[in-house]
Amino acid sequence: MNFFDLYRQKNQLSEKLFKRSKGVMPGGISHNVHYFPPYPFFLKEAKGSKIRDVDGNEYIDLWMGHYTHILGHHPEIIVEAIEQQLKEGIHWGILFEKQVEWAELIQKLIPSAEMVRFCCSGTEATMYAVRLARGFTGKKTILKIAGGWHGANPDLAMGVKLPYDREESLGLPPELIQYTKTIPFNDITGSLETIHQNREDLAAIILEPVVGEGGFAPASKEYLDMLRSETERLSALLIYDEVISGFRVALGGAQERFGIIPDLTTLGKIVGGGFPVGALVGKKEILETTSPERKVKKWEKILIGGGTFSSHPFTAAAGLAMLGYLKDYEEEVYPFLETKGEEIRRGLQEVFDREGLNAVVTGIGSLFQTHFPFQGEVTLNSPHSINQLTDTEKREVEFRIRMLNHGVHVMHGGGSLSMAHSDEDIERIIRAAREVAKEMKMKEEN
Question: Pairing mode, if any, of strands 264-267 and 210-211?
C-alpha cells in the first residue's frame, strides 16, 4: 500500500469532513498552509505535545499552532488566565489595565520596544511597520529578503517565490514592485549593491533575523551589522519581523540573542499566548508619530491601528500570563528548548545519513526543518538556496504524509518544539523519521 492510500485508510472521517468543507470554503480551508493533498486531517483535541484527529489518530505535534504554543497545547496557566478574564468580560473596545501591564512587560523584555502598539495579526503588524517607516522617513522604497514571507499584506506580498521579481497574487497593483524590492539573505555583497542602488529613496529594510522560509537559518552577525550600519547611514529604518522568533529563540527574541537592535519590530504568535495577536514595537520617537495627540494636519497623520479586536481582553490576559511565565522561568525554558532542538536536529540528520537518504536538517533553538536536495551536498542558509536547490514538494507532501502515517505531524519538514515535548517524544519522532527514510530510500531504488 502506498503512503497516500495508507493515509486515506486512516483518515476516512476527515475525508468526509473535507468534502463538506469544500462546499462552504474555497478549497475547503481559510488559510492556504492548512491544505495538503490528498486532503488535510481534521483536529478534535490537543493537549501538551499531542493532537488527536476526528478519526482517533494521535500525533506528536510539531506545528504547535503555527509555532505559537511554546508551552505546549492547552497549558494550565493560559486556561486559568482566560477563565478569570471570562468572569470579567469578553470584549469592550475600551482601555483596560491588563492591556497596559501587557505592553509594559513587552517593553521590559524586547530590547527595541520603547513603545508598543497592538493589532490583530502578524500580517497586520508588518503592514503597519512598512507604512510607519515610509511615513516617518518620507521615503518610499522598502527592501525585503528574496524569498522572505511577511504575511499577505499588499506592500510585502512580492518576491516570495522564484524568480522573486513579481507580486505573489492577482489583484495587487504591479506598480507596488516599484517601491518594494528584494535583497539576498546572508549575502553582504549582493545586498549592498541593491541598497546602494536605492539609497536616495530607502525607507526601510525588513527581514526575519531567523528566516522561516529559509529553514530557520539565522542571519550572520556580519550581515546584520551591515544592515544596521547601512540603514543608519542612509537615514532609513531597520525592521525585524520577529513574529516567529520573538520569545522563542530567546526571551528577548533574535535581537537579544544576536545583540543587534532594530528600529522597529513586529511580534505575533507567542506574544498573544495562543490568541489572535500582532504588535508593532520600536523606538519612542518613531512610534510617537502615530499618537492621536500629535498636533499635525489631517493629511500628515500616520494611521496605525483601528481593528475592532486589537488588544482583545482574552489576548491581553493570555499574553500577559504567557510572557510572565517565560520571564519567571527563563533559566529553565530556554536551555531546555535549546537542548531539545539540538537533539532532534542531530538525531534526524544521523538517521538520514545512516539510511543513505540525501536530506539536510536546518534550524536554530527549538526550530527545525528538513530538506531534500536535488543532488549532492548543499549549503542551505537562505530561502533562495532552499527554493533553488531542494525538492520542496517532496518535503511538503511525501515526507509530511509519511510522517503522519507514523504518528508525527510536521510542517515544512519539521516545526517547533515546546516545553511539553518529552525525551520520549523526541525518540519517537526520530524513530518515525528512520522508518520514513527507509521507505523513501526504497522508493528511490525501485
Answer: unpaired
Model confidence over 58-115: pLDDT tens digits?
A: 999 999 999 999 999 999 999 999 999 999 999 999 999 999 999 999 999 999 999 9
Cell, residue 152: 499577505
Q: Which long-range contacts (CB under 8 A, 24 or more apart) does 327-331 make?
A: 327/105, 327/108, 327/109, 327/251, 330/251
Residue spans of the domains in the chain: they are 3-73+333-445, 76-328
Instruction: Report the alpha-carbon angle 37-43-45, nearest 5.
Output: 160
Q: b vs e for 368-403, b when ≥16 Cβ sit within 10 Å of the residue's Cβ?
A: bbbbbbeeeebebbbbbbbbebbeeebbbbbbbbbb
pLDDT in tens, 373-428: 999 889 999 999 999 999 999 999 999 999 999 999 999 999 999 999 999 999 99
Indicate the CATH number of 3-73+333-445 among 3.90.1150.10, 3.40.50.300, 3.40.50.720, 3.90.226.10: 3.90.1150.10
Phi, psi of 163 (to 5 degrees): -95, 20
Indicate the average pLDDT of the chain.
96
Per-residue pLDDT tens over the stretch 255-312: 999 999 999 999 999 999 999 999 999 999 999 999 998 877 766 789 888 799 999 9
What CATH number is given for 76-328 in this structure?
3.40.640.10
* Cell digits of residue 214: 529559509
pLDDT of 14 > 70? The answer is yes
CB 362 within 8 A of CB 338: no
